Amino acid sequence: MSTAQNLETFDVLVIGAGPTGMACAIEAQRVGLRAVLVEKGCLVNSLFHYPANMTFFTTPELLEIGDIPFSSPNQKPNRSEALEYYRKVAEHYSLDVRQYERVDRVDGSDGDFRVHTTDRFGHPHCHRSQKLVIATGYYDLPNYMNIPGEELPKVMHYYREPHPHYDNDVLVIGGKNSAAIAALELWRHGARVMLVHRGPAMHKNVKYWILPDIENRIRNQEITAFFDSRVLEIRERSVLLETPAGKIEVTNDFVFALTGYHPDFDFLRSLGVKVGGGECRPVCDTETLESNVPGIYLAGVIVAGARTSEIFIENGRFHGRQIAADLARKLSPTNREPVGKQS
To answer: How many Å from the N-terminal Cα to the C-terminal Cα in the chain?
Structure first.
């Protein structure tokens, strides 16, 4: 994995080095194209920031990319196994991943895009590519509640591990899988847990082996739950709630606002990609995944817009084949510019 210094030319540049972005680069290489991935964090950055003890809801073979087997002794692999697997895939295909480069802006047009980035030392870089693939996911942008106190340091939108919250009063906001898992793990590691959800009960899509566990903890009053409720204000030592019984103030040390995440729609719009409707679905061809901007393709969860529950690694990993098939048609050897560094 090399570091960009001068302006280099590629056939395709992929923004985002998650599993879907990696799959896109692999499939592009398979049709003879020179591909590079630009990632603002580490390889599979979103997976790295998942909870430390997380177990996937799916089986290993459904996380595979590049026809590389994912071997695991577990029916459902964990985060550590997944990180190792994707490192091995990157090594196997010698993927050119520019880690810790944040994309600042994109200039140019189809056949000659210029992607301007900044590395972690503040040094600018510029990469030239005929085609772009946007595979930026959604995990980096939380859905903020926009309430007083949300900016306090005790408020977190990502759950990592339970130990630092032992013997503390912790509020978990949300009613889906991430909230249920965090609440259970925090409770089992000695935190006093409250859960607040605007719905009448835990969400119906909570995994079948998790739902009875969280419901039993709530029924036994081991975890205190407020349904049909919302947080009005977060204070240093307490939280103000609006509940069916009226407003109440509860003692609190930490808040996990696990209210979901969304794709970077502003970045898509800055590229000229049309994003419309209540679901914020970007415009793209269902067969080729090319957006309304010629030469810019979309891959992974961003294709679904705000409906982030529609696309996961399991189905987003196949987007690379769709895109590569179109790239192979459009970037024949006669249409391809010479590969190499440009002055």
So the answer is: 22
Backbone CA torsion sign across 153, 155, 158, 164:
positive
Q: Is the pLDDT at 233 greater than 60, yes or no?
A: yes
Tokens of 173: 């906001």
Residues 228-239: what's their mean pLDDT?
A: 98
| CA 154 to each of CA 165, 193, 280: distance values in angstroms, whole numbers, following the listed order | 11, 15, 31
Residues near 191 by Cβ (< 8 Å), separated by ≥ 6? 162, 165, 166, 167, 168, 169, 170
To which residue do tokens 């997976």 refer? 47
- Domains of the chain in start order, with CATH, are 8-141+261-341 (3.50.50.60), 155-257 (3.50.50.60)
Dig out the tokens for 110 from the structure: 């189809």
At 66-89, the pLDDT tens digits run 999 999 998 999 999 999 999 999
